[in-house]
Amino acid sequence: MLVGADGRDSQVRALAGIKQHHRSYDQVCLVARAQLGRSHQNVAYERFQSTGPFAILPLSGDRCCVVWTVRAAEESEWRSRSTAELCQAMAERFGPAQMAMFDSLELLTPLAGYRPRWAHSLGAVQSGLILIGDAAHTTHPVAGQGVNLGIRDAAALGELIQRSGLLGVERRFQRRRFWDNWGVLNLTDITNRLFSSTFWLWVGLRRLGLLVLQISPLRWLLMFVMMGRHQTFPHLHIAEAGQKMSDLLPMYSEQKC
Ligand SMILES: Cc1cc2nc3c(=O)[nH]c(=O)nc-3n(C[C@H](O)[C@H](O)[C@H](O)COP(=O)(O)OP(=O)(O)OC[C@H]3O[C@@H](n4cnc5c(N)ncnc54)[C@H](O)[C@@H]3O)c2cc1C
């Protein structure tokens, strides 16, 4: 059994000839590591704008990862700007009042560009091969769900093999993971489109939606689904090794930034 876990440009997938359904967005995520003047208190912030989301994600210490989504055509222009100009533009995008929470933001690395993509090869069953994580499905980073899905894939696969062995595991794995992956893939796609739109009807709908989320149990329901708790949760062996997810996540964020 070969498990392809080699990311969104998976060579395993390509060599096996597995086709992907995919769509690109007219967006680029400009990503950099930054030092904040005051602690982020381990809170992740995301502001939705017409070019896409702007996020400040906590790293260890007072550092953070800035993910700034711009239109694809603007990428080279922003990447040619000086650090001072970028910091000023980021403060404007995030909002001067909100930026005051951190005192200051200083870029520690040059901007890297990441082209978000909606892509999947869900449902493709090939004997002796299973794709997991981004190799099988790639979501827009707007809702920060890629790692969650990958961990749920890996844990479900481990559990299926442990319970019933390798025979027919390819099909059992697809059945077990299809709807969770499919649902999150499309929910993130809709979120990105809805929040990037300037069309009055969508603007009105999303304002109403946010208001409803504030005052109703729907917010709890949304969190419940995004954390994957609506399904039988695979037993995570990480916990048995004495490590908590909270110990592992900062490591992940540092790597991605
Ligand atoms: C800007 C940004 C922000 C994000 N924020 C979040 C977030 O907040 N929360 C979240 O859940 N997700 C987030 N994601 C998505 C998340 O990073 C991915 O979904 C996740 O990293 C996918 O994990 P993976 O292991 O499947 O693939 P990858 O992380 O791409 O890992 C694949 C690994 O395979 C290795 N590899 C590839 N080819 C070979 C080869 N031929 N031989 C050996 N090794 C190979 C690579 O080096 C790599 O280490 C974000 C993504 C981006 C770009």
If you had to describe this structure to a student in words, what would you say it looks like?
The chain is an alpha+beta fold and 257 residues long. 44% of the residues lie in helices and 21% in strands. The chain is built from 10 helices and 11 strands. The strands form 3 sheets. Strands 3, 4, 5, 6, 7 and 8 form a 6-stranded antiparallel sheet that branches. Strands 2-9-11 form a 3-stranded antiparallel sheet, covered by helices on one side. A two-stranded parallel ribbon has the order 1-10. Strand 5 and strand 6 form a beta hairpin. The radius of gyration is 20 Å and the shape is globular. It starts with a strand and ends with a helix. It binds flavin-adenine dinucleotide. Flavin-adenine dinucleotide binds next to strand 3 and helix 5.
Question: How would you sum up the global shape?
Answer: globular
Low-confidence region ranges: none
Number of strands: 11
Bound molecules: flavin-adenine dinucleotide
Radius of gyration: 20 Å
The helix count comes to 10
Kindly name the structural category: alpha+beta
Strand content: 15-25%
How far is the N terminus from the C terminus?
32 Å
Helix content: 40-55%
Oligomer: single chain
Mean pLDDT comes to 87
**N-to-C order of helices and strands:** EHEEEEEHHHEEEEEHHHHHH
Largest sheet: 6 strands, antiparallel
